[in-house]
Amino acid sequence: MSKAITDLARANVRQLTPYQSARRLGGKGDVWLNANEYPTGSAYQLSQETFNRYPECQPKAVINAYADYAGLKPEQVLTSRGADEGIELLIRAFCEPGRDAVLFCPPTYGMYGVSAEAYGVERRTVALREDWQLDLPAIARNLANVKLVYVCSPNNPTGNLINPSDLRELLAMTAGKAVVVADEAYIEFCPHASVVSWLEEFPHLVVLRTLSKAFALAGLRCGFTLASAEVIELLLKIIAPYPLSAPVADIAAQALSPQGIATMRQRVQTLLENRAELQKALLTCPCVEAVYPGEGNYMIFRCTAASSVFKSLWDQGIILRDQSKQPGLSNCLRITIGTREENQKVIDALRAQPGLTPASAPSFSKETP
Ligand SMILES: *Cc1c(COP(=O)(O)O)cnc(C)c1O
User: Fold this and answer.
1) Tens digits of per-residue pLDDT, 214-223?
2) N or C: fewer beta carbons within 10 Å in the chain?
């Protein structure tokens, strides 16, 4: 692009660092454990063969099926191009560029910051405490001009749930001032922890969901925003006229059928078993210092020299996600739970890594916090 054209762009777009998605980071491998995708997929058939007509903006079959699944009324459900579009729609609906702010608590999901930056909205961060819970007093001190607070639970990348009592306190301190967005992208792996039933009590609560993780449909690009009918109506004013293509709506409706949901629950069961197995095996690797299994389809582990372990596995075609630059996560890698075969390949590669020398070996045992 010529310099002159670049100069025409908005200043914050020129300076924008795009989201480093797992796909953009590249890599050449056959064991992809860096994007929290489900490791296997189901086959779908389109029920429609022609596509000359525009689709519905909010396909009824998809909305009704998700409302049933979540225990909500259809008018409390919005569907979009992934949960990522929900993150962005909320910023566009609630934040005045150059004046308002969004608040989030690193280490956490990167898109809250990227979307805010793209719209010229201030990103205010309040780091999680050492135990990866919310620092409520610090949040309370930083709420001026904040319109949205994003809370990810289970949190990506740390995997832990945010204490429900803290979330209630956050909702109390933001009432009438800001919207609290609970990102439940991984909630199917710990359904008991959902706060969706709180929507009745808190009109300023929004819940984000996706078909990309437990439903094994990351390639489909379909997500959901759950909220009061009032919030959904605001978002419908600014959403694209046809956010879901007809094939996407068709497949999403199938995934949300009773059989699709039963298949998803079996997938979750398998994954939880494989997660427990992988956790145990990781603890036997000399280069691994600590394992934090969390509640999602991924886990964080700390190793003696994360960057060299990461690089060595990368060179062997095993692609993990390096989290060591995130606050509080030095020497931490994130691994998506793969198939048993994939997990075994990772363990074999990790066992071959140099471990701690006896002199530098920690005296603590490899316990999870
Ligand atoms: C994967 C992920 C999303 C995005 O989901 P899509 O529906 O694929 O856009 C949102 N939030 C978190 C925390 C995620 O990990």
Assistant:
1) 999 999 999 9
2) N
